[in-house]
Amino acid sequence: MKRILCCGFPRRSGISLLLCLIVLLSACDSPEEIGLNLLEEDLSSMYTDTVTVEVSTVLLDSVVSSGTGSVLVGGYQDAWLGKAEANAVFKLGLGGGISLSNTVAYKSLELLLPYSGYYYGDSTEYITLQVHRLSENITERSLSPAVGTETSDSYFYTSSGLYNTSKTGYTAQPLATYIFKPRPNSSDTLHIPLPDVLGQEWMNLIMAGSSTFLVEEEFQNYFKGLQLRTNAGAAVVGFNAASAAIRINYYEEGEETTSAYYDFPVTTGSSQYNQMVNDFSSSYLRNIVRGGEPLSSDLTGNMGFTQAGTGVMVKLTFPYLADLKAILNPYLINGAVLEIQPVAGTYASPYILPTSLTLYEADQSNTPVSQLLANYSSSEVQLATVTEDKEYNVKSKYQFNITQYLVGKLTETQYSGKGLLLAEPPSSFTKTMSRLVIGGKGHESNRVKLKIYYTKLQ
After folding, report:
1. What is the number of structural domains in the chain?
2. Which tens digits make up the pLDDT trace of 356-397?
3. What is the Cα–Cα distance from 154 to 62, expressed in whole angstroms?
4. Closest by CA position to 370, among listed 358, 386, 354
5. How many other β-carbons are positioned within 10 Å of the β-carbon of residue 40?
6. Phi and psi torsions of 338, nearest 5°
7. Cβ proximity of 308 and 434 under 8 Å
8. What is the domain range of residue 375?
9. CB distance 248 to 264 below 8 Å
């Protein structure tokens, strides 16, 4: 091992008794109880960061993207991950119900999209948004639970919902095309004009008392919903689904003519979803296969990649644990820190680093099945917040304490087949599109490190 720090401590009288006690502890206590406070004056504290960490990239079959409350549109392109794209799909409801007198007159129809505050990429460039009418009903995908020896259900599956790869048919000709410069940090709402022909049709049906605008199921069969697509822009922008709606504006005629409106809200929940996909053909991941084998960092420029929304995750393995076990008693490990370093030059405004990362346990088919616990005696999960090098953008890092995980792997009697996947926490992995580039084992300056602190008996 190349880097070893050794701090010797003077021996005291009675060392034989102390050593016997330590040996007994390491032989009898569980790994959950050993390894945090073993340092004594009779012992040496050792450190190494030369344990090999294999880095590869996987592309999940799909990631649930429905029911997040977020409407995402836009895209961005870079040399590392290619072209990312987000399209929003949703249907609308009747709200509380609308009833109009014969003294009203149609004014306009518009789509309202209030900013949610989320964006990723260069929001100073204009986005061209196309509003398409759905040509088929949104159909949720139901999954049967995995049983027996079948492949495990992914952590990012749901019993009934829609996914980043789901598709719903839409008309080729858009109802509207709207060009705008995003203001995602504002409290503004986009007001996108929709065709007056459609608005007048709605008004006529409402005033005629048609059941189409009285029974929600009939309304949703008549107007199946919308798909929002973009073909220009350099950022993904988020809108608040709970406040989005189609608004019909009209005049109330009487002694004085007044303006009024009625909103048909976006139906949130499992039928509202975002398509989040990526064209990797011009990127380091050009050979990656959705749901396929991991792509080694040896084949991707000594780098690994994550991207929220599209299902890109980093896989981490420790191929030489058996060799480590042969020279190190697992119960004398005081700490194990997994340090993730973003590659210098891949992060800077507008492509900022994720605020936090988490670790997922994966089965042998690289399916994430659970979040890794930070402490096996509690339900707290592993979470690492970025320590950012804001001055030079070269030494930022994330650190996980994986002491219990490592001791458990070194002491397991039968190989579990589980590995580790690195990505953003579920709350952001399912409804954002930020990305991260980290160094593989062969990266000269930003490789992933496993730092092990252990006790050596004198």
Report:
1. 2
2. 999 999 998 999 999 999 988 889 999 999 999 888 878 999
3. 9
4. 358
5. 16
6. -95, 115
7. yes
8. 30-59+290-457
9. yes
